[in-house]
Amino acid sequence: MIRHGRRFALGLVLLALSSGTVAADRHIILASTTSTEQSGLFGHIIPRFRDSTGIDVRVVAVGTGQAFAIARRGDADALLVHDRRGEEAFLADGYGLERRDVMYNDFIIIGPGEDPAKVSDADTAAEAMRRIAGAQAPFASRGDDSGTHRAERRIWESAGITPSGSWYRELGSGMGPTLNTAAGMDAYVLADRGTWAGFGNRQNLTVLFEDDEALSNVYGSLLINPERHPHVKHDLAEAWHRWLVSGAGQEAIASFTRGGEPLFVPVVTR
Amino acid sequence: MESADNAFITAFHLIVSMDPVLTGIVLLSLQVSLSAVLIATLIGLPLGAAVALWRFPGRGLLITLLNAFMGLPPVVAGLMVYLMLSRAGPLGQFGLLFTPTAMVIAQCLLVLPIIAALTRQVVEDLWKEYAEQLKSLGASRARAIPTLLWDGRISLVTTVLAGFGRASAEVGAVLIVGGNIDGVTRVMTTAIALETSRGDLPLALGLGLVLMLMVAAVNGAAFLLGESARRQAG
Lengths: 270, 234
Hints:
heterodimer; A: alpha/beta; D-Maltodextrin-Binding Protein, domain 2; 2 domains; ten-stranded mixed β-sheet; two-stranded antiparallel ribbon; 11 helices; 43% helix; globular; B: mainly alpha; 10 helices; 0% strand
């Protein structure tokens, strides 16, 4: 019996340990995108926010589609995503109170250095995509309903193309895994600049097309409606939401660089 | 091969430097997986033994289910626990989603069928061997359970280790219910997945080597315990 008693006590201790880390401290859960997390942006700005407010931000980095799903179920206190249409639908459905532009960067078209589809000669993003489709060159699509995937579908739409065929490969993966796969099969891919800048396994891939209005990538912060989800930490989330567009928040975003280059441009000009 | 070489160097540096972030991730991995295995063991051993000893309607179905659930895909287990713990789910009010507790629950769900199903097999074989003897000593089935479990302890340690292997190796469940939050719910496997998606393959593989060392250490400790128990038993 003593042995059983001891084992039970050990179990209680382990249980206590595992719940001990869930202390009721001041934190919010932020559902955001893999692109912001993997670029290293949050590692740069969250400590600044925490220092000035004492609120910690716990980032769950998923695709934008999944981030909306998490927030709709009431499992996140705040949202930072990049899909204007989805964000507006989120507001229209009554899940959000307010949406603010926070920052932007751009998408880039990446592909093998030899550029068999001659994408680098294109004048617009739509033309670049038409060249890829025309050459039937392998294209790796996120295929995961993320913000980047939604942007990619819009560009195909504006190019008047419904991509299909063995050259168009829907991977159903995050940005990083998609880049890994594209590098492995020398495919073209639409990526956000943040993830690309922090990506280590480029192999033969290089940036082939950039700088087009259609490639702008705007990140918005959404304040979640507390009437819809009363348990959401509204006050703490609002402090974060306001801080992002405040002078201090915008400066924190602007001062995040990689290899000397800023990756995200703040939207609020003071 | 270059990245494999780098991985060994990276793993070596990670271990020698005792990087505090890595130490935290290793400790959380151990804490989550060991807690899950402990809880699953406390439920699975008696459950497996009971299924072995009693005959009841639907027993065959229960055994088939236990055996089948040994192959429960972690991502499905994660999704089930996510839907239970989500604010919109039945246990939402406890706010357990994206905490280590949620990860323990999910891994427990993965480990329990393994421990219960293998325990059932071990105890059933022992029961066939000793049933007459135990009955002649006047031991009821319920009284026989602790004796049989103790008798089969060496096989059962392997069973528990199989459960631990499952828990420490899976990434699908903890990723969904934990969210891979830096410093809160990031464990070895989710860190490896993250570094892979960042394209930092040497670091990812280096972390993988550290994880394998960690699992080997736990198995080594169990082996030594088993050896000393065997020696005591003569």
